[in-house]
Amino acid sequence: MEASKPRVSSATGESFDSGSTVSRRVIRGGVFATGSKVAGIGAALVANVLLARFITKDEFGMFLLLVTIVNFGAVIGRAGLDRALVIYISKNIADGQGSAAREVFRKGLRVSEFASLAIATVIFGLLFLWGGILFSISSSVSLTAAVAIGVLLMARLNVLADSLCGYHDQLFRSLFESQSGGLLMNVVFVLMLIPCYWFGALSISVVMWLFAASIGALLPFAALRLQNVASGHQDFAMLKESASTDVSYSAMLALCLPLMLSQLLIFASTRTDIWIAGAFCSHGELAMFGAARRLTFLISMPLVVANLAVISSIPELYSQKRIVELQRILRISGTITAIPVILALLAVVLFPGRILSMVYGSSYSEGALILVILCFGQLVSTLTGSCGACLLMTGHHRAMITSSLVALAFLFGAGIPAATHYGAVGLAVACAITMAGKNLWWLIAARMKVGVWTQVTIPRTIPLGGSLKMLLRR
Length: 474
What we know:
With 474 residues, this protein is mostly helical. It has 20 helices and no strands.
């Protein structure tokens, strides 16, 4: 009779007994993550507004380019473990095997340490030797070292934060986000920028070191939170864990590498445009294109929230063949998060120059057409919902790899000549087409391979509060 008692985490208060519904967890996690992400978007906008005014336009464009390189290196450095650990940890926790979840995390962290060190070394060498040739970037040791250190720190923080997602700790996972919409990272970054600006010490090298430091400052707190959450999960499995849950490095890599390749191709197909702009446009055009690109990215962050809220539940529902419930959760969560995105995109399309001028300064209003074009591509991405996360977390990596390869090939094939002949406006057109086409491909693939539609739906009534809970439980 003892085994039938509910299993409760003392760290999170999360119940894991059969009576605890996935829908309830999705609602709670979504609310927490949404609030944190909205605040993070605001902090990111503040950081961008200040930085665009603190440094020159050319330096701001260079900053956006270098941050993209840091993010790219971090994707390789975390080696797909940010998603693989969510799968491993959530499954072990669902089975009541807390120590197995902790052991698989330790193994994953060791893999990530090796991968992040290797890619950081490669990026340092490439930027130092060929950064000036490729992007007209100063090949100073200080600047390239700041980028390499940023890769190391961001990869580690991503692994720690996404492991929290495996424990369904959505609030702290979003707080420790190290991408552009991370709340704590951007707050720390702003707090570091202001005094340096007052003392006239800001340069592109100093800014990159501050960016890396804002990531590193969160590492001990993320590690402490993860330790507290993990220690709250005890073992309830009837069988010995060593007999059923031990994960070898080869098995981990077999799952991680396809995930990493999918993430890498997704990242490249959505961020390579910044690299193309850096290589084939002037630094001024790069700044305007990067500013418009960053604004549309920040607007779309609620979509990331939707993915975070449901991502740990996707493999659980899919493995249990609860396809109808999976589709309902994906479409409802996608619709709820799409509403503020669509409203924000509409405002940007109507007043692009004014918004750019208000956010970045009057000199950036020239990028109004670029912003409008990118918004249309983002609109299609918004309407298709969480199709990418659905494919990724159900093991259908090949569909994502194929579509991302096609998107990347199109972006290079169309984006380079477009940027060469028509500047940043031509590149924006190629980027919008790539974004829209790839997400439509994912939408169809999710239906064919998983059996669900993920696109935004128009409910007869808008579910709020208790009615939302009832809708998710039906």
